[in-house]
Amino acid sequence: MAPEKLTGKVEYKENLAGNNYLVRIGFDKKVRFIPGQYASLKVNDEGIRRSYSVASLPNENVIDLLVDVTPLGVGSKYVLGLKVGDDVEVLAFLGRFTVDPLLLLTAKHLLFLATGTGIAPFKPMIEDLLYRKHFTNEVRLIWGMRHEKELYWLKEMDNINRDFDNFKHDIVISKPTKDWPGFVGHVDTVVNQLEQDWTETLVYLCGAPDMIVEMEMNLKDKGVPGTSIFYEKYF
Ligand SMILES: Cc1cc2nc3c(=O)[nH]c(=O)nc-3n(C[C@H](O)[C@H](O)[C@H](O)COP(=O)(O)OP(=O)(O)OC[C@H]3O[C@@H](n4cnc5c(N)ncnc54)[C@H](O)[C@@H]3O)c2cc1C
């Protein structure tokens, strides 16, 4: 469907952890999109826009956005200032960073690699695959963050783990405290420990452009075909 200008209202806003905010926008009609797509939010009166992946499943008339306000640019400041009840304008829905159902017929492994809020589109993409499409082969999420105090959605990921044996997730922290019990480093730290048939793996990458460029090379070296690598760069 062609993107359209939609006016919505902020229904809910929460500081999830660190500089990461969840903003729920309600519309007066049902909105249709494919998990993985993004909305372009108007962030000032001059019509400047910033892109934010939809962080929720298609579900009637609301969408969630997950925003890291660390850059403190015009988009971050706009989101920081938003209050419940405010009107917002989005151009939606955009992007082709979605899972092609035809590829699921042959894929043995689906690997989702995120840094920071790059996890935003992965939550609905993974929930859609498991709860709605009943995909039964391996789905693995690896999420890289700088500090453990910035983590969120841990319960949500544990719930998916509880519901599906074929879902696994790992978190890797690049600047951990001494008490962090998990992986230390970047997403490649975990990816390099995986043993699987890389030629039968679909990989979705989202977040920092540097991670995406490096991981694309790394994955191709392992044998993942270029046509099986998909990415959304947050620049
Ligand atoms: C398709 C797409 C989807 C996106 N989805 C999301 C999303 O779901 N959640 C989200 O938080 N962001 C997302 N982004 C990034 C978002 O659109 C903005 O680029 C980002 O929030 C910065 O906007 P800003 O106006 O605050 O900063 P800007 O005014 O654009 O930049 C301010 C300064 O911060 C630097 N900067 C820009 N981005 C970052 C960053 N990520 N980390 C550190 N420094 C940075 C810039 O180089 C500049 O110096 C997405 C980007 C794209 C292209």
Overview of the structural elements:
The chain has 235 residues and is α/β, with parallel strands linked by helices. The protein folds into 2 domains: 91 residues, Beta Barrel (Elongation Factor Tu (Ef-tu), domain 3), CATH 2.40.30.10; 131 residues, Rossmann fold (3-Layer(aba) Sandwich). It contains 5 helices and 12 strands. The strands form 2 sheets. The protein has a 6-stranded antiparallel sheet, with helices on one face. The protein has a 6-stranded parallel sheet with strand order 10-9-8-7-11-12, with helices on both faces. The two termini are 25 Å apart. It binds flavin-adenine dinucleotide. Flavin-adenine dinucleotide binds next to β4, β5 and α1. GO terms for molecular function: oxidoreductase activity.
CATH class of the largest domain: Alpha Beta
Q: H/E series, N to C? A: EEEEEHEEHEHEEHEHE
Radius of gyration from CA coordinates: 18 Å
Low-confidence stretches: none
Q: How many separate structural domains?
A: 2
Q: Tell me the distance between the termini.
A: 25 Å
